[in-house]
C-alpha cells in the first residue's frame, strides 16, 4: 500500500491545470494502461493501513463474558474449594471446550463477514488510453484522470480539470457541514484546507454536479485516508436478537440459581442430607439447566445467513437487517434496473414529421430505421442521408450525453448511464460516431442532470452556431418549450398533440425522453435560466426496458408471502402502470404522481398508501414521505435507492437497500443491504433467507431448552424426593456440551421449509419465546424427564449398580434429544415421511457423531473414570431406542393435535402485511 511521503508535499491547489498535468507527466485523456500498471507497482495500492482486527486472545476471553458461563466457572471454583478436584477439573475442561468452539466459530464468522466487506470495495470511473473504464479505486495511481458525479465518494485527492456545478460535502475532512463549491482555478498556496476550491479530496461526497480530476495523491498521502474505512461492512456480532437472548440468559440464570439454592436447602433441611452433597446437587442442577451453548449457536446461525445472502448477491452491511428481513411487509422498489433489465434500447422516435421505428435490441449497434404508417412499421428502411431532421435529432442525443459505447471481448458495453447509452447506440445504428461527433463539437459548458430539475443541458458549437442542447423528462421539457422544429421551420408547440404522443409511447411500456435546443450567443457559462426559456422541441424518443423475468416470479412470490411490492419511478405514470401490469402487481388501476404526493397531507397519504402500488414522476424526497406513511400504518418497509438524495429514505426504512452497480457510494453507506446485481428478485431472495434464519434460530432454541429442562428437572425431583440423583453434575455438563456442539448446530443448516414464502410477515415485536414455544419446551422437558427417570428406575430395579443406572439415564437423555431433533426440523408439520425423516444431511450427520461420542463415553475406561459411567449391554440399548422412538412419536401426535386445533407454529404476523387468504401454517 502507499507509503506516506516524508518530503515537502506539492501544493497542488496552487498549481494550474496544465502545470499539474506536466508535473505528473499525464494528459487530459489520462494514462496509458502500461504506464498505469508501472505506477501502481511504484506507488502501491490506493488504500490505507487497515484497522487492526480484534486479537485472538481477546476473542477467546470474550467467550467467558457470559452470565451462563460465569455461573459454571463459579460452580467449578466452589467444587475445587470443597475438595471435589475431579468434578472441578471436568467442569473447567468442558467450559473451556465450549469456549473454544465459540472462539473458532466466531473467528470463521468474522472472516466471512470481512470477505463480504471486501465485496463492497469502491469503484472509480477513470480514463485509460483515452477511454472510460470502471476499476477498483485501490488501483488508482497519481496521473490518472478520474470522472466523478453526484453521489460519488471521491476516491483519491484530485486536482480538478473540469467542474460543472460541482459541490462536495467535506464534513469528514474539515468539519464544515455545508457543501463546498468547487472550480478549476488555482488558489493561493497558503489557502486553508476548506478554501482549496480547485481540489476534491479523498473520502468527501459529491452532492451536486460532475467533474473531471487529476489524481495527485493516493493512499497514505491523501489529506484524509478513509477509503478503506468508508464501508466498514458488517458491524459487530451483536444484534437485537442476540441482545434479547443475552437478557433471557440473565433472567434464566437468576431463576436457575434460585431454584438450585432452594432445592439444595430443601434437601438439607427437610431430608437432612449433608450440606456438601446438597451443594453439589445444587451445582448439578445449575449445570444441567444452563444452556451455555445457545449464544454461540445463534451467532453462527446469523453468520450463516449473511454468507448465504452474499452468495445470492445480497450483501448485508449491518447484521440486524438479517432479522428485520423476515418482517418485511412492503418493498418500495425503483423501476429501472431493479424491476427491469436496465438494458435500454431506443425503439421509437417521434419527430414532428411522424414516428420512426428502430430495429434491434440490446447494445449492439445493429438495426435499421423505418417510418411508421397507421401504427405499422414500413418494410423499406430509411436513408438517413436524406433525413436531416432524424440525423440532427440523433446527433443532439449523442452530444447532450455522457455515456460511451465500447466493444470489449466481443461484447458491446455501455460506460455510463444506460438511458444515455441507448441514444448513443441509436446514433451508432445510423452510422454516427460518438467519438467523432464529440471531437468535432466540443462541449463548452454543461448543466448536469439532477432529479430536482429533470433535465441535462450542454453548450456546443454545431455547424458554426452556438447551440444549447437539452435532454430530459418530456413533461418537464414541454413546460420549457414554446415552439417545435418542423421541415417548414419553427412553429408554435401544440402541447395536447405532444402529450398524446407521450401517452402513446408510455402505454407501450416505453420510457420517454424529449430533446430540445436553442441558439444562444455570448454565453460561456450556463445557468438554469438559459435552459428553461426559448427552447425549441426536436422530438421524443421511446426507450424499451423490459421487465426482468425473475422479477415477475419474485413479485408473485411477494404477493404469496403477504409482502406488497410498490414501484417508485421517475417515469411517466402510463409507462409505470404498463410495466406494473406486466410484472403482476396487485393494484394497477391507478398511479399516484409526485405532484399529487406533494399536495397531500401526511394523513391523506397514510389513508391511501395501502391502495396504490405505483408512484410515478416521484422524486427522492417523496420516497421518505412514502416510507413514513407506510410505517405509520404499521408496515415494515424495505426501500431501494441509488442516488445521493435517496439517503434519508434509505436510513428511515427498516431495511435500506442500495444498488451495487448503479448505486452511488452515498446510497451504499446509508443502506443496510447492497444488491450486487441491482435485481428485485435478490431482495425477495434475501427476505426468504431472513425468514429461514429466524425460523432455524427458533427451532434451535426450541430444541436445546428441553434438553436442559429435562435433566434439570430430573435432578430437582430427585432432591425434593430425597432419592439418588439420576444424573451427576459432570454427566449433565457432558450432555450439555455434546448436544450443543453436535445436535444443536444441525438445525442452523436446515433448508427453508416449503411454505416459508406463503406465511404472513413476522411481527418484529413478537417475543422469540412465545406461548407456543414455551409449551413445546415444557412438554418435551417432561417427556425427557420421564425417559430419564424411567430408564434410571428400570436399571436399578433390574439390580444394576448406581453407575449403570446413571449411564442408562444419560444415554436415554442424549438419544431422546436426538430423536426430538428430527421432530424439530418442522415446528408443526409432520416429519413422518421420507423427506421429513431423512431429508437433512446435517441432522443425520450430527446424530451419527453423537452416537460415536456416547459409545466412547460409555465404554472407554478413561471416560468411565472421569464421568462414572459403566458399559451397557444390547438389551439396555434396545430399551433406550424404544424410549427415544416413543418420545419422537408422542411429539408427532402432539403436533397433530395442535394442527387440528388450528394452532400456528409461527410468531405473530406483522400488522402491515399484504392482505390475502389461504395462508398455510407450518
Summarize the structure.
It is built from 32 helices and 28 strands. The protein is of the alpha+beta class and 922 residues long.
Model description:
The protein is an alpha+beta fold. Strands 10, 11, 12, 13, 16, 17, 18, 19, 20, 21 and 22 form an eleven-stranded mixed beta sheet that branches. It has an eight-stranded mixed beta sheet with strand order 8-28-27-26-9-23-25-24, sandwiched between helices. Helix 4 (67-81) runs antiparallel to helix 8, helix 7 (240-270) packs parallel to helix 25 and helix 28 runs antiparallel to helix 30 (841-859). It is elongated and about 115 Å long. The model is unreliable at 226-237 and 915-922 (pLDDT under 50).
Based on the model shown, name its key terms:
922 residues; disordered C terminus; 28 strands; elongated
Structural topology:
Blueprint: H1 17-23, H2 33-43, H3 56-61, H4 67-81, H5 85-119, E1 123-128, E2 131-136, E3 145-149, E4 157-169, H6 171-174, E5 180-181, E6 199-200, E7 205-217, H7 240-270, H8 275-289, H9 294-311, E8 314-316, H10 320-325, E9 330-334, H11 335-339, E10 345-351, E11 354-358, E12 369-373, E13 376-377, H12 388-399, E14 404-408, E15 411-415, H13 418-429, H14 434-440, E16 443-447, E17 455-462, E18 465-472, H15 474-480, E19 481-486, E20 489-492, H16 495-507, E21 510-519, H17 528-531, E22 535-544, H18 549-560, E23 564-568, H19 573-583, E24 592-593, H20 594-599, H21 602-608, E25 614-616, H22 620-632, E26 637-641, H23 647-652, E27 655-659, H24 665-670, E28 673-675, H25 680-721, H26 729-746, H27 771-797, H28 802-823, H29 834-838, H30 841-859, H31 861-867, H32 874-900
